[in-house]
Specification:
By secondary structure, this protein is mainly beta. It has one domain. The chain contains 1 helix and 9 strands; from the N terminus they run βαββββββββ.
Length: about 130
Amino acid sequence: MSATNYAKNQSLDLQFGGSSYTPPANYYMGLSTTTISSSGSNATEPVGASYARVQIPNDKSHFTYASSGCLVNSGSIAFPTSSGSWGTITNIFLSDASTSGSIWFYTVLGSAKIVQDNTLVSWSASAIAFYQT
């Protein structure tokens, strides 16, 4: 996942004497049926059918330590089983809120995932890499 401009600006301002910030205590992974921009805009999430962002505590039990400018998820991440169509998922993201909020990281999936009724969307440990590019 790449950092959005918002995340990059927060980090740069912190490192170069600007305003400080407190990293989110939790991130919330979301799914999008549209391509998310580097500004963190244009995310279109599924509505209804048991869709909800997945809370991920922002700690070293859930994310590895960075190495060579990258870190990965330490555990699996699973969404609730769909109770209807969520559409074709093309992007995933991390936000700082369970609804709305700012998107900090995003990526386009290697292959789109069609989510119909009774579908489980999940990623195993180490499946999602985070970069601050």
